[in-house]
Design brief:
There is one protein chain. This protein is α+β, with helices and mostly antiparallel strands. The strands form two sheets. A four-stranded antiparallel beta sheet has the order 1-4-6-5. It has a three-stranded antiparallel beta sheet with strand order 2-3-7. The longest helix has 21 residues. It is globular.
């Protein structure tokens, strides 16, 4: 799965509201990685957006072999290589002023670390449904992949950045929610 292509402009999207309602009715929060359930739940209160897929971002190595593990990095040595399964959220955004404002706020999250956070589109999502975007935490050199092999020092940095990213996302979502 290729996760990164340059963001596209919003286009006409008749039926957005119907698609949003259908997506919300099918949302099962028990299927979401525990550390970001609150974020995905917050997105349900935004009328000009809904989530499509997400991942907390997982680190897998010999000391932590579980591919869906949520534990902080541990049980490693200086030579450990870590498989990083990217942290991201993909969403469908309404072509509206509110949608444009949300895109602006999401895109600004890249400013935390432009070399490791990308606001983007994924062609395979866009081909199924226009106005789909993603924000991901991944070293720029791997931005077109959904997994990457990292040395432990870089993995520890990405782990810290991932937390900052999701914390900042939590801060911006209330501006877009229904009151």
């Amino acid at each position: 799965m290729q996760t990164y292509t340059v963001p596209k402009p919003l286009v006409a999207d008749p039926g957005f509201s119907v698609k949003r309602i259908k997506a919300l009715n099918g949302l099962d929060l028990s299927m979401i990685d525990t550390p970001i359930v609150d974020i995905i739940e917050s997105f349900t209160k935004i009328t000009h957006c809904y989530t499509l897929q997400c991942c907390w971002g997982h680190f897998v190595h010999d000391g932590q072999p579980e591919r869906e593990g949520l534990e902080p990095l541990a049980h490693y040595n200086d030579n450990t290589e870590v498989e990083y399964r990217i942290a991201y959220i993909a969403f469908h955004i309404e072509n509206s002023k509110n949608g444009e404002d949300l895109i602006e706020d999401l895109s600004a999250l890249q400013n935390l670390d432009p070399q490791n956070i990308q606001f983007c589109c994924a062609d395979w999502f866009w081909n199924q449904q226009v106005n789909t975007y993603a924000i991901q935490v991944e070293p720029d050199r791997f931005k077109k992949q959904d997994t990457a092999m990292l040395c432990i020092a870089e993995a520890l940095y990405i782990e810290k950045l991932r937390k900052q990213f999701f914390d900042r996302l939590r801060d911006i979502l209330p501006r877009h929610q229904l009151l």
